[in-house]
Fold this protein.
Amino acid sequence: MEKRGLIRRNKSDSDSRGAEIELTDDGARTFRSSSASHLRLVRRLFVDALPPEDLEAAGRIAARLRLHLDEIAFESEGDQADN
């Protein structure tokens, strides 16, 4: 992707072992153009198969999982600060 000019790799300010990746303008355009067809397919295969009450339940489940994951991440940050 870097050779194709879609991303740019930069040294990480916070981790000397890693790199930070950013999309170039061409990368962002490529992402947007490819994501539209992907989202149409996801809708056709999954969203259109579910009645509204199932979609609402899926939304509630996703929100609950997000809260749980945020809590775990917060706990993990606290554990790291204690070390």
In short: The mean pLDDT is 91. The chain is about 65% helix and 10% strand.
